[in-house]
Amino acid sequence: MRIQVRRTGGFAGIERHAEVETSGRADAQDWHALAEKAVADGRGTPPIGVPDGFSYQITVNEKTVYCSDPRLTEDQRKLISRVLKEGA
C-alpha angle 43/14/74, rounded to 5°? Predict the structure, then answer.
């Protein structure tokens, strides 16, 4: 499973992108479960965010959803943090 996160917005407006490929990882099942929950709570179109807040595009395999601060679910927040931290 390929999980991609694109973060835009924020005070400086700097875009950040990372992705994780879960194939062959010992913790792949954890990634899959978290990704499925995060995508299930996402929107099909970009939501209107708050000034200087971050907006996110999450793509799992070929499915893309959108979310933004401050309305992230806990699963979305965890997935975004993990991908941006561990991804390339």
Answer: 40
Structure tokens at 18: 């990372």
- What's the longest Cα–Cα distance across the chain? 40
Model confidence over 42-81: pLDDT tens digits? 999 998 888 889 999 999 999 999 999 999 999 999 999 9
CA dist 73 and 81 (Å) reads: 12
* CA atoms of 73 and 76, how far apart (whole Å): 5
Give the total number of structural domains in the chain: 1
| Sign of the torsion formed by the C-alpha atoms of 21, 22, 25 and 27 | positive
Domain range for 71: 2-86
According to DSSP H, which parts of the chain are helical? 28-40, 74-86
Tokens 């990634």, residue located: 31
